[in-house]
Amino acid sequence: MRGKRALAVCLAGMLAVLASGCSKRMPWVSAAGERSEEVQDMAANRLDAVKQYGKLKIGISADYAPFAFENPDGEGVPYAGADIELGNYIAENLGVEAEFCEMEFDDCLAAVAEGSVDLVLLGMLPKGDRDTVMDYTEVYYRPGRQVFLIKESQKEKLSKLEDFEEKTVAAQYGSLQAQLLVEQLPGSLPELTENVKEGILKLRLGIVDGVILEEALAETAVLEHEELALSQAELSYTPSGVVGGVVKGETELLAAVNKILGQAAEENLYLKWLDAANEQAMSLSRPIR
Questions:
Q1: pLDDT tens for residues 75-105?
Q2: What is the pTM of this model?
Q3: Mind listing the pLDDT tens digit for each residue in 15-32?
Q4: Cα–Cα distance between 262 and 138 in angstroms, integer?
Q5: Which pLDDT value is given to residue 81?
Q6: Residue 97 CA, distance from chain mean position
Q7: Cβ contact 216:24 at 8 Å
Q8: For residue 258, is pLDDT > 80?
Q9: Cβ within 8 Å of residue 123, ≥6 positions away
Q10: Which of 3, 61, 124, 258 has the most CB atoms at less than 10 Å from its CB?
Q11: Any idea what DSSP says for residue 70?
């Protein structure tokens, strides 16, 4: 899940350093950036500040298709994915603009912990101690089956979990798939990749023997590349929900975001965004020549 770029890029420009001399400012105004002193002094909480400022700062990590990924053909915002659509939807329903701040996954966690973003959308599972630095939103997506993408020619040889013993298996760094790889295939040779496209490319080039992917994404890859197939080998996985993260203690903002997530769930919007993002992510992959 997560690339190794050293610099975080915020689309609206670098966050301005807030002057330390104003005693009236509250902790949440560290996300204000260019917010005026009047907004900083008058807003009662972060939700109020967001509405007065007119922008919702959202931390993303654009190396985790189909949730968020780079889109060089995009106009205005050079990122695409289901979480980008969700972020825009949340901001629109709050009556503000979405301001996406792109950085590495761990940097996003640090940003929401210190309040330099209002919200993070990372295709994130509520695991470990992440809830010590943020308040989780309601679940907005539950991942499906986790499967092996392999070469069509290897379907018979790689049909059981034990067949991947001493085989090279790819998964995206920091992702659920990487976790399953470590836990359930200790005898395999892990190959952690920057993103899904890299894993699929390495499989097509014969560098790895398989790639662990969510079933929907793997099926899309099979449609795109006729030499690929799904293995019958099964990974043990009980789906847990994907959540967002709001600055800790900002109950008004959290309640507003959860209400909007409920609206999106009623209309089944996220699954529609995810299907479209799967197709778009695969279309950005160029054929091997």
A1: 667 899 999 999 999 999 999 999 999 999 9
A2: 0.65
A3: 332 222 222 334 444 444
A4: 8
A5: 92
A6: 19
A7: no
A8: yes
A9: 1, 64, 67, 68, 83, 141, 242
A10: 61
A11: E
Strand partners, 146: 214
Strands 243-247 and 134-136: antiparallel
Number of neighbours of residue 259 by Cβ within 10 angstroms:
12
pLDDT tens digit sequence for 174-232: 778 888 999 999 999 999 988 788 899 999 999 999 999 988 788 888 988 999 999 99
CB 194 within 8 A of CB 4: yes
The better pLDDT of the pair 238, 67 is held by 67
**CB of 200 within 8 A of CB of 221?**
yes
Q: Is residue 147 within 8 Å of 200, Cβ to Cβ?
A: no
Interatomic CA distance for residues 174 and 194, integer angstroms: 9
Nearest alpha carbon to residue 196 among 168, 222, 233, 221: 221
CB 89 within 8 A of CB 264: yes
Dump pLDDT digits (tens) for 225-246. 999 999 999 898 877 789 999 9
Contact 229, 152 (CB under 8 A): yes
**Helices within 116-210 (DSSP H only):** 176-184, 196-205
Helix (H) or strand (E) holding 50: helix 46-53
The beta strand positions in the chain, using DSSP E, are 9-10, 55-60, 63-64, 68-70, 79-80, 97-102, 119-124, 134-136, 146-151, 168-172, 189-193, 210-214, 228-230, 243-247
**Order of strands, sheet of 189-193, starting from the edge strand that comes earlier in the sequence:** 189-193, 168-172, 210-214, 146-151, 228-230
Please say whether the dihedral angle defined by the alpha carbons of residues 4, 66, 142 and 100, taken in this order, is positive or negative: positive
**Residue-wise burial string across 154-187, b where 16 or more C-beta atoms lie within 10 A, e elsewhere:** beeebeebebbeebbbbbbbbbbbbbbbeebbee
- pLDDT for position 74: 64
Comparing C-alpha atoms, which of 134, 105, 130 is closest to residue 46? Answer: 134
